[in-house]
Amino acid sequence: MNSWKTILKRMLILAFWLGVWALLARLADRELLLPGPGRVLRRLLALMGTAGFWQITGVSLARILCGALAAIFAGVLLAAATSRSRFLDAVLSPLLTAVKSVPVASFILLALIWIGRDILPSVIVFLMVLPLVWSNVAAGIAQTDRQLLELARLYRFPPWRTVRRVYVPEVAPYFLAACYTSFGVAWKSGVAAEVLTVPVRSIGRMLFEAKLYLETVDLFAWTAVVVLCSLAIEKLLDTLTRRIGRRYFEGGRTL
Length: 255
Description:
Layout: H1 2-28, H2 37-48, H3 51-84, H4 86-101, H5 104-111, H6 120-142, H7 146-154, H8 159-197, H9 203-212, H10 216-249
């Protein structure tokens, strides 16, 4: 019952904002400035009926996903390494903090000097996601229950079992939170990088060309694609985190 109420509430909110959009488009009375939602929806459906649309969307998703997964893997390894070595932590912490603070556009403009435009979005995603994963996982390792670690040493657990039975459940909430945040950042920074670098077959290129040729309807349609993909990724991550959370945290756990 509650789920139906939630769905109905969201549909009403969506209908309200679509109504506001339609009203503003009618007041503007110029498709070049603000096309109506019906016109954008028809264009979006027309785009979805072409093979090129799915190729472009798939390539953009693959670029961004590759960069994000590589950053997650590297971030976990770096967090484990810096947690064990104070020297390594002292050396790498300022660098990773600086990477997290620098605007995306600055990285893109600098990286264009050395990196090809087709792989640059993946590199930008990697740089944006890496500090997030590293900081969250390192915080999780630092907050690991020392009594559990002492118990593992008392029972002479091998390293792999200590990692599996102690570190993984303790760090999992931090890791999942990092992944949830990281994929949102990855998608936004990846599309932004595509807009500035205009690689072949990319959503960013389609946005850039729509703006360049004043094709406002296409600009809104491809923006809707970005939003829909972002919502789909968010929903998928939410489902995965709930399932993993139930696995590790419902019913307790034992060493």
